[in-house]
UniProtKB/TrEMBL annotation:
It comes from the Eukaryota. GO terms for biological process: pyridoxine biosynthetic process. It comes from Cryoendolithus antarcticus. This is pyridoxal 5'-phosphate synthase. Its cofactor is FMN.
Length: 254
């Protein structure tokens, strides 16, 4: 190993400059989504967004965009990423869920609040974010704010709309808990089926129900060419000094 000192010196210089290390890095994925056999990304050209087009109320504006997404046959526009973070670690987790309700207080999703990762996160940190992405319209909506649980009576209203299998599944699944195998889950479902055999009106589980994200920030994003997107942010203005209706509206740089 007569060359060992020289190799060590080269490695030391590489670490110091970073140039050799970078050149040896193998990229498993690089610039995906290119067009015309180039790495250039697809351009967004389907729309623009001006301040004059916005409602003073972000919930009303969301309803307008959501209705448009439905009219344009966007695939499952209710699909949304719910992001939460645990404290004190600050570790973030995210998952796809369905928006099931929008009311004058905020955005409602449903889940297991007894055993799930999101339940543990929210127990330590009641703030969450939602991200909607509507590819067909090149639009994105982001929501941030504190969360609150719906009452059992409120949750029962939605729970009753689910097919029986999904209602039983809510009782059976200890969401995010480790399973020894699929047969364990099937056994849990069988036990719940036997428990509620002959009962059509099932009570909503006490550990399952609605969660409302009460917006303090809502951002509407319209894709534009050259990544020069249109972005407008609504910020809750409890002092009432905002543009209208207790909300301040700002255009953001892309």
């Amino acid at each position: 190993m007569r060359n060992a000192p020289r190799i060590a010196q080269q490695l030391s210089r590489s670490i110091a400059t970073g140039t050799q290390i970078r050149s040896m890095t193998t990229k498993a994925i690089f610039a995906p989504g290119g067009i015309n056999d180039t790495p250039q990304a697809q351009q967004y050209i389907k729309g623009a967004l001006e301040r004059s087009q916005l409602s003073p109320d972000p919930l009303a504006q969301f309803k307008t965009w959501f209705d448009h997404a439905n009219a344009e046959k966007v695939h499952q526009p209710e699909t949304v990423t719910l992001s939460t973070a645990s404290l004190p670690s600050g570790k973030v987790s995210a998952r796809m869920v369905y928006l099931k309700e929008l009311d004058d207080k905020g955005f409602v999703i449903y889940s297991n609040w007894g055993t799930s990762r999101k339940a543990a996160d929210i127990a330590s940190n009641p703030h969450a974010s939602l991200t909607f992405w509507w590819h067909e319209l090149e639009r994105q909506v982001r929501v941030e704010g504190p969360c609150e649980r719906l009452t059992s009576a409120e949750s029962q209203t939605y729970y009753d709309t689910r097919i029986r299998g999904s209602r039983l599944g809510a009782w059976a699944s200890q969401q995010s808990k480790v399973l020894s195998g699929r047969e364990e889950l099937e056994g849990q479902v069988k036990a719940v089926e036997e428990r509620f055999e002959g009962t059509e009106k099932l009570p909503v589980p006490e550990f399952w129900g609605g969660l409302r994200v009460k917006p303090e920030m809502v951002e509407f994003w319209q894709g534009r060419e050259s990544r020069l997107h249109d972005r407008f942010r609504y910020l809750r203005d409890e002092g009432g000094e905002g543009d209208e209706g207790g909300w301040k509206v700002e255009r953001l740089s892309p």
